Amino acid sequence: MTVRQRLRFRQYHVKPDETATVIGQAWCCTDETECQWTSGERTRADDLTALIAKHAAETEHQCYRRTATDYATAVPGDWV
Description:
Elements: E1 10-16, E2 23-28, H1 45-59, E3 64-69, E4 72-79
Antiparallel strand pairs: 1-4, 2-3
């Protein structure tokens, strides 16, 4: 007995969710054993930049790691 299936695939377009807030955070990585500074989560890039600049001015640390987290939506497209 032969069983046949027809599988259809759908394209999806991944786009940023415009209704969600982007969250950024920074960590000082100049000397990880002594400096545990972190900015905490921020929703404005200007605030994050200002906090990094302030920490750099106070400590002369120059290496930072930044991350930004956002949400995305998968919008269904055509069937292929």
